[in-house]
UniProtKB/TrEMBL annotation:
Keyword Cytoplasm (UniProt): yes
HAMAP family: RimP
Organism lineage string: Bacteria, Pseudomonadati, Bacteroidota, Sphingobacteriia, Sphingobacteriales
This protein's UniProt keywords: Cytoplasm, Ribosome biogenesis
Underlying gene: rimP
InterPro entries according to UniProt: Ribosome_maturation_RimP, RimP_C, RimP_N, RimP_N_sf
Subcellular location: Cytoplasm
Gene3D superfamilies: RimP-like superfamily, N-terminal (3.30.300.70)
The protein's name: Ribosome maturation factor RimP
All residue ranges annotated as the Ribosome maturation factor RimP N-terminal domain in the record: 16-80
Keyword ATP-binding: no
Coiled-coil residue spans: none
Function: Required for maturation of 30S ribosomal subunits.
Amino acid sequence: MNIEKRVTELIEEKIADMPNLFLVDVKMHSNGKLIVLVDGDNGIGIADCAAISRHVGFHLEEENVIEEAYNLEVSSPGIDTPLTLPRQYAKNVGRTLGIKMADGTKREGKLLSVGEGAITIEETIKEKGKKAETVESTIPTDKITETKVLISFK
C-alpha cells in the first residue's frame, strides 16, 4: 500500500470531527522522515498535532505499513511554506503575499479575496516617471507557480 495514501486516510479519519482543520500535505522522504502538514482556519495547536501524530503512529505500527525505521513529524506549515490550497488563501485574506507567476514575474500585494480559480490582490504599481498607483488585480491561480505570505516587521 502507498504510505502517503494510507497516512492521508488516517489523518482524514482523525480530523473528520474537527471541521476547522485540514490536511495540507503528506510526504515520505527517502531518509525515513514522514512529514505531515496540517493547518486550521484559525491555525492549529500543539495538542491537535500531537493527537494526529498519536493516531497516525499507532495505526502505522498496528498495520506495519512502514517496514523500516521512520520519523513521523506532524506540524503546521511554516511561514516559509508556499500556499497551495484555496483554504490556505482564504485564511490569509488581509495579509501581504509574494507571488511568483508562471511567466517568471513576481508580484506583491495585499490579498483582498479568493474566488473560484482566482485571487484578488491590491498592489502598488510604479511606472517610471509617474506617481505610484494602487490597483486591484485579479490573478488566475493557474498562472501562479508559488505564493508565500510576506511578514512585515514594521
